[in-house]
Amino acid sequence: MHRMDELPEYAERVLAVAELIPAGRVMTYGDVAEWLDEGGPRQVGRVMALYGGAVPWWRVVRADGLLLPGHERDALAHYRAEGTPLREPGRAAGGRMPRIAMARARWDGGGDVTPPTTPRT
Questions:
Q1: Pairing mode, strands 86-87 and 99-100
Q2: Per residue in 15-51, pLDDT tens?
Q3: Where are the domains of the chain?
Q4: What does pTM read for this prediction?
C-alpha cells in the first residue's frame, strides 16, 4: 500500500506524460500507454481518475474525442482557452457538447521529448 503522498511508479510516469502534452493538443489514453510502452488505455484512465487532478487532465482524452463525462464544462473551458481544435455539434445534435477534432488536436509526442522513465521530483 502506498502513502497518500507517494504515487505508484506507473502513475508517476502517466502524470509526467500529461504534463508534457502542449497546450492545445491532446493524447488518448491509449496513446499515453503506447508511448510509455506499458499498460493500456484502462490503466491510464484509472491513473488519471485517481491522481490526475494536479496535471492538465483535459489533455488526456478518449479516442473518439468525446469530452470526459461529468467534466465536460471544465474541459471545454480549458480547450477553448488553449485553442484546442474542436468539432462543434451540428444542428441535429440538440445542443450537445462539441468533440475534440482528433485529427488536428492529437499530439504524437514528437520533438525532443522522450517518455519519462523515472518518477517526477
A1: antiparallel
A2: 999 999 999 999 999 999 999 999 999 999 999 999 9
A3: 9-105
A4: 0.83
**26 DSSP 8-state letter:** B
Q: Provide the grid cell at 108.
A: 504524437
Q: What is the pLDDT of residues 53-97, one digit of tens each?
A: 999 999 999 999 999 999 999 999 999 999 999 998 866 656 688
Contact 15, 97 (CB under 8 A): no
Domain 9-105 is found in CATH 1.10.10.10 = yes
Cα(59)–Cα(120) distance, integer angstroms: 18
Reduced to 3 states, what is the DSSP secondary structure of residue 12? helix
Whether the Cβ atoms of residue 26 and residue 68 lie closer than 8 Å to each other? no
Sign of the torsion formed by the C-alpha atoms of 96, 65, 87 and 51: positive
Residues 6+ apart with CB under 8 A from 48: 14, 18, 29, 57, 60
Widest pairwise Cα distance in the chain: 50
